[in-house]
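Support case: manganese (II) ion complex. Customer-provided input:
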Amino acid sequence: MSSRPAQIANRLLALRGQPGEVFLYPHIDTDGDALGSSLALLRSLRQIDVRARLLLDEPVPERLKFLPALDLIETGAELAAECAAKQKLALLIDCAEAERTGRRRALVEQAEQIAAIDHHIDASQSGGLFWIDPTAAAAGEMVFDLICQLGKTARAELIDDTNAFLLMTAVVSDTGSFIFSNTSARTFRVAASLMARPVDLRQITYQLFDLTSQERLRLMGRLFTDAQFYLSGRLVLATASQHLLDEYGATDQDLDGVINHLRNVGGVEAAFLIREMNDSSLRVSIRGSDSFNAAEFAGGFGGGGHRKAAGLVLKGLTLAEAAALIRDKAGERLSKR
Ligand SMILES: [Mn+2]
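Agent response - structure generated as follows:
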């Protein structure tokens, strides 16, 4: 296991000074961990003369616009054919499956070689250049290790102020500012190393978790008022139709974090938020507990994630039908206990 980062480091170092490129692919619906980790790795690779590019499907989400080095990102469909020929290595970050790269998948599959750095439990393909470590709280912890390895071999100080900020964002993002149960001694060791740089931690936590808007505040009020509790409050379910978002002038991103408030209600063992997407599919966010495995539930519908936080997508159902389905299936599971 411990040699896996070394293998990835060696593969990357072999590209030093070479014309071949490494393409970094954070997962779709990118988050602070995926993007912060990817940007820090991109900057590190370039610093040691490895040609690297960072490709995204979608524009950088509003909430992550405070990150430095965003100008290094390439976005959209234009990142197609012409650049594919130079792609020696496709490196998936914070995911391990090509479908988690969205429209970039075709590009991923054209790479000479595919590698991954991921900490999600359902990704069981660890081996070779697939480095999966479910004990890591964030991909940022793994990328920190990788960057340190690269720096050691290349004799370069790669954790500069900007990379420290980016990696701290990654770790803070996936641990909810060091309060989720995935937070470990290792998390704090990485964070302590990063804090040796002048990292504005408060800016990161404010931007990621505290900053809100009038639209979001009012939308949340409405969602919480309308949320349905079942099984004596063990199960809670909220739905967000496109109509509702429009009514409040809110966007999909305004729903981020809403589900955590639902889960925090005393007595709740499983929380669900169903949102209507533009393509008429429904995205279901799930929060579990010791008595409800969110990843297992999501897996039953082709979704995935962690034990306590997972997601799935439903197609061909109305919002009401989906809510009834989730309520029944989750209710069944909870009733067995
Ligand atoms: Mn992550």
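The longest strand covers residues 87-93.

Case will auto-close in a few days if no follow-up is received.
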